Amino acid sequence: MASFSKFGAETDANEVLAAFPNAVEGKIVLITGVSPNGLGAALARSLAPHKPKLLILAGRTSAKVEAVSKEIVTSNPGIEVRTVLFDISSFASIAKGVEEINGYAEPNIDIVFNNAGVMNIPERRLSADGFEMQLATNYLGLALFTMSILPKIKQSAAGRIVNVVSNGYAISPFRFSDYNFDGNDLPEDEQPSKAACEAFGVPWGLGYIPPVAYGQSKTAGILFTRELAHRLTGTNVTAVCVNPGVVATDLWREMPPQTVDAIMSALPPKSPTQGVSTMLVAALDPKLKESPGAYLEDCQIAEVQPFAKDKAKGERLWKLTERLTGNTFSV
């Protein structure tokens, strides 16, 4: 359970920050996926007035990250902001970003928001490393980046890793037999959920369907968070994951405008400050130390489908991720 049961879908960032006074002051905070019309920027705007020691803003596009940095510095004189450029879908690019971050004089990072992501890429597309792009961006890059900077997070007195996922995970289990959508046979327990596909208005099938690929990548994020949290038992670092809800950001850019408009009409979106509220609870609420690996939505801990909390699947995914990224993940 989170500390404040009154928090819910309409809670905004300022309410959360007021509930945890001084929780941000003096902290080093890293946010990935930063662009002016995204949750990363909304997080930075919310956190900056609360005197963090350092904000590290990471993204793929220099102009977008620098625009947010300039805005934050202008609005909050005296704050220190650093920008790091890398493509979370590329292992080589991640390595360059990690080298820069791990080279900072500061020994620690206190809070990491793994916010970078893509959604519903219309045609199957592969990353530079040969992986389906939503899997590469939303999961493999997230896992590799997190594990590569984990030593700095462990130097924090109370480190917190917040992985952004989605309730869209419910559409698909992780497809160990065909994670890349190459057309391999899928056992029944790895097939998309017909009930969830119907509920989300998604066609059911075993081939590449954009929301199915997105759902698989987010299931992977949840399984990874739970396994990482388990492996961090006894340390000073807590890992949790978050569904921010429907927010009108650039995440929807791959979808036809008329489809996005229809979704926004059917499911009125949260404001950006409401969208980051659950992320802030995940980062700041000390009570979540008691619930490592938790999945949060609308500022509260929520249950996930059995396939997203299966311990054996989490262990299997961890080993597969090490193999796919070519790294041994030490905790």
Automatic annotation (TrEMBL):
<dbReference type="InterPro" id="IPR002347">
    <property type="entry name" value="SDR_fam"/>
</dbReference>
<dbReference type="Pfam" id="PF00106">
    <property type="entry name" value="adh_short"/>
</dbReference>
<dbReference type="InterPro" id="IPR036291">
    <property type="entry name" value="NAD(P)-bd_dom_sf"/>
</dbReference>
<keyword id="KW-0560">Oxidoreductase</keyword>
<comment type="similarity">
    <text>Belongs to the short-chain dehydrogenases/reductases (SDR) family.</text>
</comment>
<protein>
    <submittedName>
        <fullName>NAD(P)-binding protein</fullName>
    </submittedName>
</protein>
<dbReference type="GO" id="GO:0016491">
    <property type="term" value="F:oxidoreductase activity"/>
</dbReference>
